[in-house]
Amino acid sequence: MVDFIRGYKAQYCVEQFSWIWQVSYGHYDIAKVVQQFKQEVYSTALNSIAHLYIYLILQK
Questions:
Q1: pLDDT tens across 35-51, in order?
Q2: 7-32 pLDDT, tens per residue?
Q3: What is the pTM of this model?
Q4: CB–CB of 22/28 below 8 Å?
Q5: Distance CA 45, CA 43 (A)
Q6: Distance between CA atoms of 11 and 13, rounded to whole angstroms?
Q7: For the packed helices 2-24 and 30-59, what is the interaxial angle rounded to 10 degrees?
Q8: Of 3, 9, 33, 35, which cross-links 28 as Cys (Cβ 3.0–4.6 Å)?
């Protein structure tokens, strides 16, 4: 389970890095960036809560 969470975190970091790279090199216009950022923050929060919930259930 810990490996699963570690893998998820690593994957998330890779995705964030590529997203930041694309933004910094001007592959996005600002409106899209802001919209995508809001969506990613929201979905990341939901994913984190869901993973934590699953983790806690499996710990029992």
A1: 777 777 777 777 778 88
A2: 556 666 566 666 665 655 555 566 67
A3: 0.33
A4: yes
A5: 5
A6: 5
A7: 180
A8: 33
